[in-house]
Design brief:
Blueprint (H helix, E strand, L loop, with lengths): L1 H13 L3 H11 L5 H10 L5 H10 L4 H15 L5 H14 L5 H8 L4 H10 L6 H17 L2 H10 L9 H9 L4 H11 L6 H8 L8 H13 L5 H9 L4 H14 L2 H8 L7 H13 L3 H9 L6 H11 L8 H8 L4 H14 L5 H10 L4 H22 L12 H5 L26 H8 L5 H10 L6 H10 L5 H11 L10 H11 L5 H14 L5 H7 L5 H14 L5 H10 L3 H14 L5 H8 L5 H13 L4 H11 L5 H13 L5 H9 L4 H14 L2 H10 L5 H13 L3 H9 L6 H12 L7 H7 L5 H14 L4 H11 L3 H17 L1 H4 L11 H13 L4 H12 L4 H15 L1
Helix pairs in contact: 1-2, 1-3, 2-4, 4-6, 5-6, 6-8, 7-8, 7-9, 8-10, 9-10, 10-12, 11-12, 12-14, 14-15, 14-16, 15-16, 16-17, 16-18, 18-19, 18-20, 19-21, 21-22, 22-24, 23-24, 26-27, 27-29, 28-29, 29-31, 30-31, 31-33, 32-33, 33-35, 34-35, 35-37, 36-37, 37-38, 37-39, 38-39, 39-40, 39-41, ...
Length: about 900
């Protein structure tokens, strides 16, 4: 169905009148496929500016998969003659944040074309680069001197992505103290993003409430609220009650930035304000409140008497895409208003909830023949397609998977069991076919402990309710190691299935009492990730448990939640806790919460503790507090005189994170120490710094005579995302120490960053089997379909059958999730390799995808230039159609 429907929509984009073409491009945004992506990319060069603008906006969902392809085209659009298109491209580049665009953007920032410079400023908002930061600072200074307020305002906003506390004086002098309201308002937004003491921010912003410009006052109100100033609602009320419509509109804008229940209640009063400008801002702010009540309130405004307001509300309704709007939109579908009903059908596709199918079908069947019915039918087909795609796609990522169960069953030393009962809920239903995910779920309940551990790890990569439900049951497995892996895996997707969370949280809380430390630790981390405040009372109760380990894991969970309400109980426990691990965990937890008020507690209880682990935790925790760096610098520097290597290392790292360049001096001293533990700690710090200089120093430690140092070097390289680090790790696979060797192996095999693509592609051709295998695994982890032809070519050449089998297992896991994208080049003339094409054709039979997808792939293969491939594909195609 998708192929026919999407082809129809794409055809409508490229031909006909402007408005139907624009609507077709909007409909294309509901699809997430290579074909839809290609059509959107093609539309970037359309002759109609509004088509180009919408195409830019529709590409956001593809940033992760096609970032570089997209940004290369967006860069060109910065020079588009249409201002709206150029602006949209600039904003999109800012969101994509591709570091590879930095060089081109710098050229534009330093160029003489003022329009291009302005768009480049907007585009570099989230691109991290010291060169961009320096250039923006220069533009801010030049803009202030030349009086170019538009550029000055944009540059102040753009520097948010490269913000640091040292910029505060400049932002105050050239931003807040500027007479222009735009500049002042931008400076407020940027300064509010600084990681400095909240009290200091309040002191900066509160005087701005007396300004004679509504926009400035509004931004100041938002900034004060974000800084924790609860009295700001009095100031907001003054804006809302003002006789000037623009001031009231600004008050509504502020409430949209706050977007909580209190803000929503206030906004309700301004839905019927006498001025349309106020009502429009009220509508925008109500949209920002993501609740069902707010969605209903916005829909009510669709009947506004003013066409401008009504048009703005319509546009906002069309932007609904989250679950909170589902029922209000269902009611809108039944409203009897054809225009609103078509909008509702469109929005239901954006939300993508299968529950809308019967309602939409009923609306379609009861509609009279005509254009209205055709529109409903189109959206019914789109939603049905989304539903079908969910059913056939098991979202798995590349991971090791042993398929020969006999090999595992006969493994030496394996614990043999009677097996674990698979829950009835996980058994196949009538008419349901066994798919890839179900095979792994079954393995979680196998009699072999080895296979259950393996399945628990693999299920973390499968995004489905059944997978999460299975992991929840696995938390009660009779074998501790399986419980631990289930606890580690379950946090990855459990938040998407709130109906399962009550049982998951209950089992995780029980697991905190587990005698197996790894199981309890992973349970604590999972609870911290879920961050459900309803579990806080139970966790606080566990703080009084007689077992130090149980108190430790409850503390870890509370710390990960970073909720201020747990601070006092943790401090009370700290005052009488005797166990050093628990004391260290409490101080770490206070650091995660980050309140500046904890400064004295951390210094008093942490820095003078007799245990070095506690002191090291105190240094790290202090550096995480929401407090001005200069307040803690002296205390951190005192820790550099500690006798323990871990404390010194944490102090070095804290100083470096605060921008204190002297940190590297102390790190160098650690590197040159005769004590191996000091050198090992230096390696840890260098891995966290991860700069070019740090990498070069680590290279000098790679061949240290002490294995403990080399071990930390391997871990550090695993944290540095550069080809140089990967090369070093490959060299460390030859280390004489097995632990170091295994650590280097783990660091490589876990890599999933794009920088490693081409280094790994080259290792596919290595003379060493282990490197060829590792390269295939990492390429699948990275997740770029461009790796598929390369791996197939390597598999075709592989002479070792065991290595080939393992490579193809990983490739099968990857291709299963991206079948169309994976095979797009294999059978084309672009990729001229017969052996790879033949391997690819074999692989199609081994993956579980719909016949529709297979038809698409075989059709492409039937057109192959290689007769053997084309003939085999044509035969398979004929069999499918028959």
């Amino acid at each position: 169905m998708q192929i026919e429907l999407i082809d129809e929509i794409i055809e409508n984009i490229s031909a006909g009148d402007f408005r139907p073409r624009l609507k077709a491009l909007y409909d294309l945004s509901y699809f997430n496929s290579e074909k839809a992506f290609a059509a959107a990319m093609k539309s970037l060069s359309d002759g109609e500016p509004k088509i180009r603008t919408l195409a830019v906006k529709s590409l956001k969902k593809y940033y992760h998969q096609y970032q570089r392809t997209i940004t290369e085209e967006l860069i060109k659009l910065l020079s588009d003659p249409d201002k709206e298109t150029a602006f949209a491209a600039a904003e999109a580049l800012g969101e994509a944040a591709d570091p590879k665009t930095a060089e081109t953007l710098l050229k534009y920032l330093r160029g003489s074309d003022e329009n291009l410079k302005l768009y480049a400023i907007i585009a570099c908002k989230k691109v991290k680069s010291e060169h961009i930061k320096e250039t923006l600072v220069s533009i801010i200074k030049d803009g202030a001197e030349a009086g170019d307020k538009k550029t000055l305002s944009a540059a102040i906003t753009a520097i948010t992505g490269n913000l640091s506390p040292d910029l505060l004086p400049m932002l105050i002098r050239l931003g807040l103290e500027d007479a222009d309201a735009r500049v002042k308002a931008s400076a407020i937004e940027t300064i509010s993003c600084l990681n400095i003491d909240k009290k200091a921010l309040i002191e900066i912003f509160r005087p701005l409430l007396t300004e004679n410009n509504a926009r400035v006052v509004a931004n100041a109100c938002v900034a004060l609220h974000n800084a924790g100033d609860d009295t700001v609602f009095d100031d907001i009320n003054r804006l809302l009650k003002n006789d000037n419509k623009w001031v009231r509109a600004s008050g509504c804008y502020v409430l949209g930035k706050i977007a909580n229940e209190t803000a929503f209640r206030l906004l309700q009063k301004y839905k019927a304000d006498g001025d349309p400008e106020v009502r429009i801002n009220a509508a925008r702010s109500i949209f920002a409140v993501k609740t069902e009540k707010a969605a209903r309130a916005l829909i009510e405004m669709a009947s506004d008497a003013d066409n401008t307001v009504k048009g703005a509300v319509y546009q906002l309704i069309l932007k609904f895409s989250e679950a909170h709007a589902f029922w209000p939109v269902i009611d809108l579908l039944k409203s009897g208003n054809k225009t609103l009903a078509v909008m509702a059908a469109s929005v239901l596709c954006a939300i993508g909830d299968d529950a809308a199918l019967p309602v939409l079908k009923e609306a379609f069947e009861s509609a009279p023949d005509g254009q209205f019915k055709k529109e409903l039918n189109k959206y019914l087909r789109i939603l049905d397609d989304i539903h079908n795609q969910k059913k056939v796609s098991a979202r798995a990522m590349a991971t090791y998977r042993e398929t020969t169960e006999d090999r595992a069953d006969d493994a030496a030393g394996e614990i043999r069991e009677e097996g674990v009962a698979i829950p009835i809920e996980l058994l196949l239903k009538p008419g349901e076919e066994k798919n890839f995910a179900h095979i792994i779920i079954e393995k979680l309940f196998h009699k072999s402990q080895f296979l259950r551990e393996e399945a628990a790890a693999e299920l973390s990569y499968i995004d489905s309710k059944k997978a999460v439900f299975a992991l929840c049951r696995g938390l009660a497995d009779p074998v501790a190691k399986v419980r631990a892996v289930c606890a580690r895996s379950i946090s990855r997707h459990c938040m998407k299935y709130p109906e399962l969370l009550p049982e998951i949280k209950e089992k995780l809380l029980e697991l905190l009492y587990d005698d197996y430390p790894e199981a309890a630790q992973h349970a604590a981390m999972a609870l911290g990730f879920i961050r459900d405040k309803n579990t806080i009372p139970a966790l606080l109760e566990i703080l009084n448990h007689e077992s130090a380990n149980t108190r430790l894991y409850a503390t870890m969970a509370l710390g990960r939640m970073a909720d201020k309400s747990v601070g006092t109980p943790l401090i009370e426990l700290l005052n009488h806790e005797e166990n050093k691990k628990v004391r260290a965990a409490i101080i770490t937890a206070l650091g995660y919460i980050g309140e500046a008020d904890y400064y004295d507690t951390i210094v008093k209880n942490g820095f003078d503790d007799k245990d070095p682990h506690v002191r090291a935790s105190a240094v790290e925790a202090l550096s995480k507090l929401k407090i001005a760096p200069e307040t803690i610098t002296d205390v951190i520097k005192k820790a550099l005189g500690d006798i323990n290597n871990r404390v010194i290392a944490n102090a070095c790292l804290a100083l470096w994170k605060m921008g204190d360049l002297s940190a590297m001096t102390y790190v160098t001293k650690l590197v040159k120490s005769n004590d191996k533990w000091y050198r090992a700690s230096a390696s840890y710090v260098l891995g966290q710094i991860a700069s070019v200089e740090a990498t070069n120093i680590l290279l000098s430690l790679k061949n240290d005579q002490e294995a403990d140092v080399r071990l930390n070097v391997a871990k550090a390289f695993g944290n540095i995302k550069t080809p140089k680090a990967i090369t070093a790790l490959v060299e460390m696979l030859d280390d004489t120490d097995d632990v170091v060797k295994n650590t280097a192996y783990d660091a490589i095999i876990k890599c999933e960053d794009k920088f490693a693509f081409w280094p790994m592609a080259n290792y596919l051709k290595s003379e060493f089997e282990i490197l060829r295998f590792m390269a295939a695994v990492v390429l699948c982890n990275i997740g770029d379909p461009a790796c598929v032809p390369l791996i197939l070519e390597a598999a075709a050449k592989e002479r070792n059958e065991e290595v080939k089998s393992e490579i193809l297992k990983y490739l099968k896991l990857f291709v299963h999730n991206h079948p169309i994208d994976s095979f797009k080049d294999i059978f084309s003339e672009k990729y001229n390799n017969q052996a790879a094409a033949e391997e690819g054709l074999k692989l199609v039979e081994q993956i579980e995808v719909s016949n529709e997808v297979k038809v698409s792939i075989y059709t492409a293969a039937a057109g192959s230039q290689f007769k053997k491939v084309a003939s085999a594909a044509a035969a398979k195609l004929e069999a499918l159609k028959g």
